[in-house]
Amino acid sequence: MDLKENLVSRHLVFNEKNPKMEWLDGLRHEAIERFDKQGFPKRKDEEWRFTNLNPLLKPDYKLFPESEESSVDYKEIKKYLLHDMDTYDIVFVNGVYSSYLSSTTHEEADICVLSCAMEKLKYQQVIENYYGKIAPTDDSLVSLNTAFFKDGAYIYIPEKVILSKPIQLIFLSTAKEEEVMYHPRNLIVVGANSQVQIIERHQTMNEKANLTNSVTEVHVGKNSELDYYKIQNDASKASLIDHTYIEQERDSVASVHTFSFGGNLTRNNLEFSQKGENCNSILNGITVIGGKQHVDHHTKVDHRFPHCESHELYKGIFDDSAHGVFNGKIYVHAEAQKLNSFQQNNNVLLSDKAEIDTKPQLEIFADDVKCSHGCTVGQLDETALFYMQQRGIPRDEAKALLLYAFAAEVLEHVKIPQIKSRITRLIAKKLDIEIDFDL
Fold it and tell me: Residue 312 falls within a domain, yes or no?
């Protein structure tokens, strides 16, 4: 029995063990049927032609092992948290919410656990309005997540609230038994005229080849601002397939910054849908990987209304036999006039065996727009290295400075100083740099 058949056969038992809600049971039933028909994506699918999931489908994954909160101490996870600033924290251990490690609230906003929110009447209208309505139903992995969703974060920011501190979402795996497949599901709703900052991290604390299939649905209300940071620096055998879908109402700004530094295979599906005029969508990313690591960024911005903007900048540094993929699509509907859209993907290969497949795309059906896209693939500038060496800078340090300068353009958009400092240190560690950069 292959993994798809195994998952389909286990779904009935899984569903029986979870709280019964008629509308959610219906979604789960429809989702597992769609997954059964579609199966896992294959390389013959255009959107997956450069990413092979077959090696990840061999283990007989365990679903949601029991979590013991006491088995994880704060000292063990401190290095994965931004502990030098005040934050709300929602921490999950082996797919289960850890109240001991978390710091949530219902005062200025509802920052809590989705499974609990689903059981309370006062959250029902928001959840039914947005859960399963933003993420597409034609993606088999989204359907798999819907079918096996057990828990995740529920964040509701009321109208006219500027959240006093950022929110951290931390998903930890400590399971010592077989490899585990996780399906976290997050729902984030930002009311009109509000602001929120969110940091997300998935971390395996052992050497198991776990697979996380995560889905996040985000609604950004009128004249609101979302600033979202994804830090991906997992264990060498762990893999992550991350789906984030954001819909924006008029006059809103939504930014997603993705920093991919570790893990076996990482696939980021990031899609924006603009639902009103004067929306601004910002997508930034830095990838620094080596060995045989694989990182695939698939992005899409759907422009449906006039006077909107989107700005997208992804940079990658690839060493050894690492493989990067960038596939970005900007879709401009006929009604989306007076549009300004920018997309750029720049890459540096440090090894003859490193690869990057890059495909920026524009589909434009409006005639009064300003759209540009491009990509570059190259190596370090030997002339610049020689010039720096002539001024007394050792070659390794000169190389490090050039690579940091290459990535620094993306870091300029980071609004939280502690995250900028953390990302700078991660880049330095990945590039084996012993330089104290001035932030």
Answer: no
- Which of 232, 255, 275 is the endpoint of a domain? 275
pTM for this entry:
0.95
Backbone angles phi, psi at 123, to 5 degrees: -100, -5
| Residue among 301, 291, 310, 307 at smallest CA distance from 330 | 301
The one-digit pLDDT tens for each residue of the chain (439 residues) are 699 999 999 998 887 777 667 778 889 999 999 999 999 999 999 999 999 999 999 998 988 775 444 468 888 888 888 888 999 999 999 999 999 999 999 999 999 999 999 989 899 999 999 999 999 999 999 999 999 998 999 999 999 999 999 999 999 998 877 899 999 999 999 999 999 999 999 999 988 899 999 999 999 999 999 999 999 999 999 999 999 999 999 999 999 999 999 899 999 999 999 999 999 999 999 999 999 999 999 999 999 999 999 999 999 999 999 999 999 999 999 999 999 999 999 999 999 999 999 999 999 999 999 999 999 999 887 888 888 888 888 887 888 888 888 988 999 999 999 999 999 989 988 877 765 544 3
Which range marks the domain in which residue 247 is found? 3-275
* Number of domains forming the structure of the chain: 2
- Shared domain check, 396 and 258: no
Q: In this structure, what token pair is assigned to residue 357?
A: 């497949």
Residues 111 and 103: their CA atoms lie apart, in Å, by 9
CA pair distance 378, 260, nearest whole angstrom: 20
